[in-house]
Write a structure and sequence with these properties.
heterotrimer, A mainly alpha (377), B mainly alpha (295), C alpha/beta (242), A: 377 residues, mainly alpha, two-stranded antiparallel ribbon, globular, C: 242 residues, alpha/beta, Rossmann fold
């Protein structure tokens, strides 16, 4: 892992972040522009939810992708973010009815999109810190088990603390503060943050712990602290996603932060590729499209006009089958260990004519890092 | 709360613990040999239930349906191994865990699609709900049978693992898989056997589970696998005695909270129990019987 | 001169990109004790594991009793008649001595024969009889080595591959073990033994090979090897008992 001990030269470092971000941000913005011009109704909704899903996936990818530990619990942070947003944005008069136990200053608060998201980030980070502290000492399996506990406990609290969450009946009356461009902007900001995180010292240290916890510890990486910090950062992103989601979907219930969503989010990053930011985005894109198509089939009972028996749960089943196939045949995900821009660079290099003598053009630093990542995998 | 009440709850915990112990054992069996935490294990319990539902509602005797249910669990377990897990034999823990999750989702949706998305009732023989009285204490026949069946299964399993060469091979494989192959024991055979036993235990637990719940639903497998997972983690992943102990301990913790919490907070029994589990894990990250160090 | 029992031709194997064994060719004839010598890291253990099927060959052929066995899984190779006693013993520490020996016979179905062989092994290693019910992990190093050897014998092998049997053991025990190794051909078992203890190995072996950096550097009769100065050079300081 030469990358994490060698000091990266400032220029190259910044260049990587810029290139990596642009590789994803540009297509996203183009998609937003296209949607803005052409799409209406259901398609538009799908696109906006897709942007929000990207943020959810990135939060999860920041943790599971970098540390190699499955987290069942990040969806709970999405839920926490949603509830925080609800507390801060629902009109005061309705709030009294929904959340009788809400403390005074929250009851009177009425904030906009950005403050709500920021508040969600802060609350998510604090909660993550508190529960992360005892977890950070644990080994990988115990970590995963704890995130499972978090999911079940959080769901239990959401469902049962009626005076603060309205239990299983859920929350409504959240103002619609999110539109196409705010969602797109949020997705882009999340992408930049995730890319910067991946190339940051913390991100590199985390990846070292993923590959070989013992070796990285021997090299001086404080595994406990690294995991805790990554946990907090990723939880913050997930909470932001929740706040965003709440202010678009306007109503929710605890069941929306449970197994179905856990499976969907994990599938997306696994299919796209756990290790990369592009993987999370690509996975989210693919799954969103495939799921929509399949849901259409499930509901209408037809593919392209051909009758197909109406199968309940077809979409989910197909998604699971695809996930399983990827895990068997390409466990590193569709993009593997390379970000989109690295794939692009590879393709360009292949096209370049070989100089006489058959020597390959010298690989640049990006490729060298790719090679070292491959060797480590 | 008097001694009698305490004793009654103890009996309840014993019966619940028996079910959990069986479930935990089945899960631990596969983990010890293959390092796989099989999330789809819950579907083995579910398929037992669904088989019983399909047969009992068509007039088949409950006992026969129960036997067929157990058979179905064994078959499904072997199928899972062959189709989904054998190609992943050497994959990372993360990949295995998530694959089993995917398999679980697939099977759950198969239930949804082939039978019904809704809950379906499964009638049990009347005598099971009849209550035995010993002095002031009561226990339903189902509870008694649950405890007896679990005890018998445990004894049988121990004998199998101790005396038969297949059982000894399984213990060897759990300890050192490569060296076991050096002894001429077929890798595929040992793993298939582990899955078969896992299915058997899940099936037995499934019959008891469905008798208790009285119904089946597509997502019914989730609770059993969660309990099994928690129990094995408490006991120490890979330790069979640990799994049994973990099952009983979890039952006692749950019944404990059931007793302590007021009725308004009853739905919080599970979250509180998990909190205690978290505390246990904090002090003993490898479980109570898991030793120290390692994964 | 009949066909060799074990023949390796140009065998190359290793772990991923690291080739621990390069283009190795050797033979072992029926009834011989052949020594495989070399310093740490020379590839000797990997070679034995390759023969036993735990490591895949990248190229080359391994023939045993006329059959190709490269690319076969370890289970098949044991059943063909080759038993590997791994480096470091690797007994099943959480199982009893008796169960360990039973595992050695796991591939066999003849209950009578197994019982008889168990008796023979316990005659050979009386210390094991005393500790029959004890957990293998509680045995001393020497006893564990005896157990590992006994376990291998329980499969009635034609060829035994011994990986560093003297490692970490006191001289007296080592002598006992090598005495037994010498007797093995009389019981119909051919031996290929990997050893760092050159002197000791060459007292029991009739022939030997010297490995370094994954390849065979020298070979010859035990007498020839004993006299060759180069053999000592290859080992730098491992001459004599550990």
């Amino acid at each position: 892992m030469a990358g994490f001990t060698t000091r990266l030269s400032g220029n190259r470092h910044a260049r990587r972040i810029v290139v990596g971000s642009l590789a994803l941000v540009v297509p996203l913005l183009i998609a937003a522009a296209v949607m803005n011009a052409l799409a209406t109704g259901a398609t538009l909704r799908l696109c906006i939810n897709f942007f929000i899903t990207i943020v959810v996936c990135l939060g999860l990818q920041m943790f599971t992708g970098h540390t190699g530990i499955v987290s069942w619990g990040h969806v709970s942070f999405v839920g926490i973010g949603a509830y925080v947003a609800a507390y801060l944005t629902v009109p005061v008069s309705i709030k009294e009815e929904l959340f009788p136990a809400l403390p005074g200053f929250l009851m009177q608060a009425q904030l906009g999109l950005a403050p709500a998201i920021l508040a969600a980030i802060v609350v998510g980070a604090v909660i993550a810190f508190v529960i992360g502290l005892p977890m950070s000492r644990m080994k990988e399996i115990a970590w995963a088990m704890s995130t499972l506990g978090l999911l079940v406990i959080a769901h239990g609290i959401f469902s049962n603390w009626r005076s603060m969450t309205r239990g299983n009946e859920g929350v409504y009356a959240i103002p619609s503060n999110v539109g196409l461009w705010s969602a797109a902007a949020a997705a882009c900001i999340a992408v930049v943050a995730a890319v910067a995180f991946k190339h940051s010292r913390l991100g590199l240290r985390a990846q070292a712990t993923r590959e070989d916890p013992l070796a990285s510890q021997a090299s001086g990486v404080n595994v406990t602290r690294t995991r805790l910090l990554v946990w907090i950062a990723s939880a913050a992103v997930s909470s932001a996603a929740g706040a965003l989601w709440a202010q678009y979907n306007l109503a929710f219930a605890p069941s929306q932060f449970y197994w179905t969503q856990v499976f969907a989010a994990l599938s997306m990053i696994v299919i796209g590729g756990l290790a990369t930011v592009s993987g999370a985005v690509t996975g989210a894109a693919i799954i969103t499209v495939v799921y929509e198509i399949l849901r259409g089939v499930e509901e209408d009972g037809s593919i392209l006009g051909i009758g197909v028996p109406k199968v309940s749960g077809l979409a989910q089943m197909a998604l699971a089958v695809i996930t399983l196939l990827i895990l068997i045949f390409r466990p590193e995900g569709i993009l593997g260990y390379r970000e989109l821009e690295e794939w692009g660079a590879r393709l360009l290099r292949r096209r370049r004519p070989r100089p006489p003598g058959g020597a390959e053009p010298p690989p640049d630093a990006q490729a060298a890092d790719t090679a070292s990542e491959e060797a480590v995998s | 709360m008097g001694a009698q009440e305490l004793l009654q709850q103890f009996i309840n915990a014993l019966s619940l613990g028996s079910t959990y112990a069986l479930l935990a054992l089945g899960l631990a069996m596969v983990f010890s040999v293959m390092g796989l935490v099989n999330f789809a294990y819950g579907e083995l319990v579910a398929v037992t239930g669904y088989t019983m539902y399909l047969l009992v509602t068509r007039g088949v005797s409950w006992w026969l349906a129960a036997l067929c249910g157990i058979g179905a669990a064994i078959v499904l377990s072997l199928l899972m191994e062959r189709i989904a897990f054998r190609p992943l034999r050497n994959a990372s823990f993360l990949t295995l865990l998530f694959s089993s999750f995917a398999v679980s989702v697939i099977i759950q949706n198969l239930f949804r699609a082939t039978v019904s998305p809704r809950q379906k009732g499964v009638p049990s023989p009347d005598f099971l709900s009849e209550v035995l009285r010993v002095g002031p204490l009561t226990a339903s026949w189902l509870m008694v049978i649950t405890t007896a069946v679990a005890a018998a299964s445990l004894v049988a399993l121990v004998l199998f693992l101790r005396r038969s060469i297949s059982g000894i091979s399984m213990r060897a494989a759990a300890e050192d898989f490569d060296v076991t192959r050096l002894m001429g024991v077929k890798a595929n055979g040992v793993i298939a056997l582990a899955f078969a036993i896992s299915g058997l235990l899940a099936g037995i637990a499934g019959v008891l589970w469905v008798a208790r719940l009285g119904a089946v639903a597509p997502h019914m497998g989730f609770v059993p696998v969660l309990k099994a997972f928690i129990a094995t983690v408490i006991g120490g992943l890979g330790s069979l005695p640990g799994a049994v102990f973990g099952g009983f301990l979890l039952a006692f913790i749950e019944i404990g909270f059931h007793v302590i919490l007021p009725s308004s907070m009853q739905p919080m029994v599970d979250p509180f129990a998990l909190l205690i589990v978290g505390v246990i894990l904090y002090f003993k990250p490898n479980g109570l019987f898991g030793g120290s160090g390692g994964k | 001169m009949s066909e060799p029992l074990l023949q390796l031709d140009g065998v190359t194997s290793g772990y991923g990109a690291i080739l621990a064994v390069r283009d190795v060719s050797l033979t072992v004839n029926d009834g011989e004790v052949v020594a495989l010598l070399g310093a740490n890291g020379a590839g000797k253990s990997t070679l034995l594991m390759t023969i036993a099927g735990l490591v895949h060959t990248t190229s080359g052929q391994i023939t045993f009793a006329g059959q190709r066995i490269d690319r076969q899984p370890p289970e098949r190779i044991l059943r063909a008649g080759i038993a590997l006693t791994p480096e470091g013993r690797r007994v099943f520490a959480r199982m009893s001595v008796a169960d360990n020996l039973r595992m050695g016979a796991a591939s066999r179905r003849d209950a009578g024969g197994i019982a008889a062989d168990m008796e023979e092994v316990l005659e050979l290693f009386p210390r094991l009889r005393e500790r029959l019910k004890q957990l293998a992990g509680t045995l001393s190093g020497g006893e564990q080595q005896m157990l590992a050897l006994g376990r291998s014998l329980m499969s009635r092998p034609r060829l035994m591959l011994l990986d560093e049997p003297s490692l970490g053991l006191a001289p007296r025990i080592v002598a006992q073990i090598f005495e037994m190794v010498q007797e093995l051909p009389k019981r119909g078992v051919t031996v290929l033994v990997v050893e760092q203890n050159v002197r000791l190995a060459l007292t029991v072996a009739t022939r030997g090979y010297v490995m370094a950096s994954g390849a065979i550097q020298a070979s010859g009769s035990a007498a020839e090897l004993r006299e060759a100065v180069d053999v000592e050079k290859v080992y730098l300081g491992t001459e004599g008992t550990r």
